[in-house]
Amino acid sequence: MRRVLIFSPHPDDLELSAGLLCHEAMRLGWTVSEVVLTDGSAGGVNTEEFHTEAHVARRESEAKLSGKLLGINSTAFWRFKDGQLSAHQPLAEKMAQAMLREIRPHAVVFPSIRDTHADHVCTHRIVKAALAQFPDAPHELQYCFWGSDASRNLTLTNRDGMRAKDRAIKCHQSQPVETYLRQRYGEPRVSHPTERFYCPTAPESARALARCGLRVTATHAP
């Protein structure tokens, strides 16, 4: 049984940045686990709801619903305050270490250091610190949504998963999902079948993952 562990700074980051990957893993029968580090309370279309327990609960409910569409087996919500993740970095590193020991993933997915959102950058540092203490290094797939990462060197293609990813993103009705889709695709829907990641061990990781069934290839960064 292959295992993927995905670290999401906020409740919709998995769908936006790795939805096709999750759908592909589901097709292959892999186990996919997600950690959502913050409570997502500072994001959405209605600022009056920010930082309320009702908003946090709604965001978690949306994430659970979308996760079912993408084959997520389990989601852990750590509920660190949205926008204040760096204040809890030492504790989050210990929790990430424990999660890695528990799951022992073959691949771990998390934000790139070149992502511009503070919680995404902090999530990158948390996961990298935890991985440094993990003896069995998994394949790293680093995504970048808020910003541009020219070093992305691994491309996953999953045309069959486009509709599922689109539906999963649109489960997050508390969020400006149309804006996010236009930012990524230029239109309010998932319109191309690829996701790109930075992998520090490509092309070796690309070959290993492809042998396991993932439709992934190493590409040359610009």
Provide an overview of this structure.
The chain is α/β, with parallel strands linked by helices and 222 residues long. It has a single domain (3-218), classed as Rossmann fold, CATH 3.40.50.10320. The protein is 41% helix and 19% strand. It has 7 helices and 8 strands, in the order βαβαβαβαββααβαβ. The chain has helices at 13-28, 53-70, 89-103, 118-132, 162-170, 177-185, 204-211; strands spanning 3-8, 31-38, 74-80, 107-111, 139-143, 154-157, 194-197, 216-218. α2 (53-70) links the parallel β2 (31-38) and β3. The radius of gyration is 16 Å and the shape is globular.
Q: Strands of the biggest beta sheet: in what spatial order? A: 3-2-1-4-5
Would you identify the CATH H-level superfamily? LmbE-like
Which secondary-structure class do the elements indicate? alpha/beta
Instruction: Please write the string of helix (H) and strand (E) elements.
Output: EHEHEHEHEEHHEHE
**Global shape:** globular
Domain count: 1
Percentage of residues in strands: 15-25%
Radius of gyration: 16 Å
What is the annotated CATH architecture? Answer: 3-Layer(aba) Sandwich
Arithmetic mean pLDDT: 96
Number of DSSP E strands: 8
> Mind describing the biggest β-sheet?
5 strands, parallel
Number of helices: 7
Identify the CATH class.
Alpha Beta
Proportion of helical residues: 40-55%
Low-confidence stretches: none
Question: CATH topology, which one?
Answer: Rossmann fold
End-to-end gap: 35 Å
